[in-house]
């Protein structure tokens, strides 16, 4: 019990890439249910490419409002409509204050609730339960510190979050976008798996932190074009790798 399969559908960063899609990672469970963490552009097509039935998505969580983390959401929802998804409720967790904007984005995408069987339940992002005893908690990162003042001045979302997936003593951390390596201090202690972005902190610093924190395995994602060469070919004391689109890992 407690097993889940994580698939990295989009491992690219904000800088466009020809071989890495935008941020999207799914957690799939034994009952077939799927939870999607971030919905970068093209996420629905990437999930189908990777063998995921997008009609089995029960929950979507958006960590922050950079476009490469959310703008695939309208395409995903209108895809459900085109695929004739049946009745049922999908929870969509979004940053604080963004529910009206994203509801409107769907209307502007010509998605209308009274024309489909399924229902969307928008909620501001907080802790939530998944299948197989897993629970999602959030932590704040400094990723938006550089634009925080501008975001507030313009009434935009000014907070970025990462995720901690817990099941009893077991912990998996999805960093999403961080501002610096120290955003993970204390968060990754004893984690069996950390899926960490690599666009805004040095991989060597992250690996050293993870080894000190007793992390069993670390996977780098959110890789900028040309960044692959910055990863050390050798780092002892911890199992680590650089993800490619479509990679999966079973947390059993």
Give an overview in words.
- With 252 residues, the protein is of the alpha/beta class.
- It has a single domain, classed as Ribonuclease Z/Hydroxyacylglutathione hydrolase-like (Metallo-beta-lactamase, Chain A, 4-Layer Sandwich), CATH 3.60.15.10.
- 19% of the residues lie in helices and 30% in strands.
- The protein is built from 6 helices and 14 strands.
- Strands 6-5-4-3-2-1-14 form a 7-stranded mixed beta sheet. A 7-stranded mixed beta sheet has the order 7-8-9-10-11-12-13, covered by helices on one side.
- It is globular and about 55 Å long.
- It starts with a strand and ends with a strand.
Summarize the structure.
With 252 residues, the protein is of the alpha/beta class.
Draw up the topology in text:
Elements: E1 4-10, E2 24-28, E3 34-37, H1 43-49, E4 57-61, H2 67-70, H3 73-82, E5 88-94, H4 99-108, E6 118-124, E7 128-129, E8 135-141, H5 148-153, E9 160-167, E10 170-174, E11 193-197, H6 203-212, E12 217-221, E13 239-242, E14 248-251
Parallel strand pairs: 3-4, 4-5, 5-6, 10-11, 11-12, 12-13
Antiparallel strand pairs: 1-2, 1-14, 2-3, 7-8, 8-9, 9-10
């Amino acid at each position: 019990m407690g097993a889940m399969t994580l698939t990295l559908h989009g491992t690219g960063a904000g800088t466009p890439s020809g071989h890495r899609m935008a941020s999207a990672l799914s957690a799939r469970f034994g009952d077939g249910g799927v939870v999607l963490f971030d919905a970068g552009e093209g996420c629905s097509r990437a999930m189908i490419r990777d063998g995921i039935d997008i009609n089995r998505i029960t929950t979507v969580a958006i960590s922050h409002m950079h476009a490469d983390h959310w703008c695939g959401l309208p395409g995903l929802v209108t895809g459900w409509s085109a695929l004739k998804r049946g009745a049922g409720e999908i929870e969509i967790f979004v940053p604080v204050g963004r529910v009206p904007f994203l509801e409107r984005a769907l209307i502007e995408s010509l998605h209308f609730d009274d024309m489909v069987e399924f229902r969307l339940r928008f909620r501001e992002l907080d802790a939530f339960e998944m299948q197989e005893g897993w629970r999602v908690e959030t932590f704040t990162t400094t990723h938006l510190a550089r634009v925080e003042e501008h975001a507030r001045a313009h009434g935009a979302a000014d907070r970025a979050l990462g995720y901690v997936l817990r099941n009893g003593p077991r912990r998996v951390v999805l960093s999403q976008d961080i501002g610096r390596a120290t955003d993970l201090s204390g968060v990754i202690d004893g984690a069996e798996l950390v899926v960490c972005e690599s666009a805004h902190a040095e991989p060597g610093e992250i690996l050293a932190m993870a080894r000190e924190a007793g992390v069993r395995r670390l996977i780098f994602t959110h890789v900028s074009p040309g960044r692959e060469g910055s990863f050390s070919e050798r780092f002892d004391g911890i199992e680590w790798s650089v993800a490619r689109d479509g990679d999966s890992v079973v947390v059993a």
